[in-house]
Amino acid sequence: MSVMIRRKNDSPFAPQPDDGMTVCRCEEVTKGEIRRAVYDGARTFGEVKRRLRTGMGLCQGQTCQRLVLAIISRELGKSVGDLGKVTGRMPVRPVLMEELSRSGVEGMESEGAEHHE
Amino acid sequence: MKRYEVIVIGAGPAGLSAACAAAEAGLETVVFDENARPGGQLFKQIHKFFGSREHQARVRGVRIGENLLKRADELGVKTVLGATVLGVYEQKEVAVRTEGEVRSYRGDAIVIATGASENMLTFDGWTLPGVIGAGAAQTLMNMHGVRPGARVLMVGSGNVGLVVSFQLLQAGCEVPIVVDAAPRIGGYGVHASKLARAGVEFRTSHTVVKAIGAGRVEGAVIAEVDGSFAPIPGTEETIDVDTICIAVGLSPMSQLADNAGCEMEYDSAKGGYVPTLNDEGLSSVPGIYCAGDMAGIEEASSAMIQGSIAGAAIARDLGYLTPDEFGERAERWRRSLDGIRSGMFAPGMKGRTDITNTDEGYPLSASLLARGFLDGADDGIFPSMIYSGGMRPIIECTQNIPCDPCQDACPRGCIVVGEDITDLPRLDIGKKCTGCALCVGACSGQAIFLIDDSLGDGYGTVGLPYEFLPLPSPGDPGKALGRDGEVVCDASVVEVRDSKAMDKTPMLVMKVPVSALGRARFFRPAENKNYA
Questions:
Q1: pLDDT per residue as tens digits for the range A44-97
Q2: How far are the Cα atoms of B41, B164, B317 from residue B221, in angstroms, in the given order?
Q3: Which chain A residue's Cα is nearest to B34?
Q4: A22-89: in CATH 3.10.310.10
Q5: Which run of H or of E encompasses A37?
Q6: Contact B378/B367 with Cβ under 8 angstroms?
Q7: Which of B138, B232, B364, B473 gives a 20 to 30 Å CA spacing to B422?
Q8: Are residues B108 and B256 in the same domain?
Q9: Distance between CA atoms of A59 and A23, rounded to whole angstroms?
Q10: How many H-runs (helices) and E-runs (strands) does chain B carry?
Q11: Closest approach of chain B CAs to the CA of A67, in angstroms?
């Protein structure tokens, strides 16, 4: 992957007419917020996600990941393939904390400390 | 921790095929699927598949799914439904949520076959209820028997958009317009033609720019786009629809492969991030195989073959098949995969717009690519469309797609495709057509018509595939429509021929003047018996 260069934007943030459009429905994040995050220095899907929670809702990015990547790619003038990998993390589907914690205890008891996450 | 020899993630066409290939060799195999029903997308596919006999061509997807499930069952594959795989860890440990808890399993080998998700488009109003994915429309119609809307704008003319549009018509919806931002219709011409002759209008170089409505979709605004897909101001047009259906491609659901540590690559031709695989579907992590759409968007037939190869490769890895036994199977499957991946719509051809002729050298129909139907300029070019009198099939199949059931269907050998299944069908005019209609029912593209000019008094008949309910009855009056969906002339139903072999694609025979035989391709009943 190419070296990532970050420097402060000299030009002011340029609003666009459709900045108010929702892109990530689960977390209610707009196109303008994503563009602003990129303007402020975010360069990857992961960085936008950490700032705005895009892709962290119920659909886990199933709907918006591609849309967010397209916005980042347009803003930076880079192809999506050059934006770096989008990390697939456990849980890849939403799970209740209750289910996860209950199961974790049972797993630890029966299997020993094999879980390494 | 419970251990299985093979853990398959996803009970779609790829996963079930992998499980069958592994279980057939004697491996203890489990399949986890998050859905309440197995089969992935197969059970929504009520249309007949393309390909050759070995690809189960002309069998409906839903039947292919049933057969696959039955086979998995017979082979002792354990299928666990409502089982969501949350992660794949080191030493091939799989975390599965079932019945309110998360359990871990370990596999000697894993097949990740998690399929794809639908791409969305953003436009003004895209979050309104009534904007749905094409897959969602299929789920509503074909799984739950719910009509998605009354009037539907289809966005996207790839095979998914075309097939779902036809299913919407079958469900009793109106589909006034299919738009596509590309200058060409993306899917098979035969799929587009089924829509065009039923009155669906195609607008290439157009997209949806707005969903109108307060609280739900009450209309849509479409506009022409320029060479860089930007809407051209002043070309906006409002259309009266209550549903906007989005069919703009799929993205591989490959997160579990990344989570498992597989080397990933971005490949736009494959639809996004996919694991790097060898030709057996093996990822960079030993023992972890991937198959189907999650490894690159294709269709169900290739997913099934990829799954089979992966399952058999695991059987070889674990000593259940000798390298020779595997090689024998793999060679057959790879040949089959090459076949289904050939032609002008093959995976490697995506986005190509420079193809102007068929393999045989015939010019591609400009009208078919732009408007979805063959026009007068195409008459006389394709030999299978030239009518030579008497009872004859006319085959309006003008693109090199991998499909040949027509040649198997004709008991008289009137129709020849040959060894290369992407070749256009040819008519052997030395052989006599008896009008048995088997070819009409066998053509997955519904592109075969039986023409007969011998009814007398200046009349003849056109036999056409007719997959709409209720079926008209002999004597019913109506209009004969042209390939463009426009009225050609009055027509009346002579008979509706149906048989088990035609598998729910009956042939409707309509009486029209001999002068209209070359143009009349669809029947619209005078009295529109309602579906309600």
A1: 999 999 999 999 999 999 999 999 999 999 999 999 999 988 998 889 999 998
A2: 31, 21, 56
A3: A93
A4: no
A5: helix A31-39
A6: yes
A7: B138
A8: yes
A9: 13
A10: 11, 28
A11: 8
